[in-house]
Hints:
Blueprint: H1 5-11, H2 15-29, H3 39-55, H4 57-61, H5 63-69, H6 71-93
Helix pairs in contact: 2-6, 5-6
Amino acid sequence: MGISKGNRTYHFKRKEDIIEAIIDDMSGRYRPPAVPQSLGEMNALFRHLQTMIKDNAFYFWHHAQLAQLSPKIREQQKKVYQTNTKLFREALVS
């Protein structure tokens, strides 16, 4: 991380606080894509999701445990799930 243990524990009192900060940063950078209007766009969306999962494998490997660790993380996961569910529903209906 590039910071001393003392400095890290000053800013983050618990290990859970560090994890929440990382997840907050990830969530802040997440931008839901536009609703796909064609099969090509749907394919591009799936490729994007595959890349995101690969780039953030640590998160997806421990998705369930993270939700149990922190109510804040669980709520963030719920928002992303609801957003993605709405996206796919709109893509399949339109």
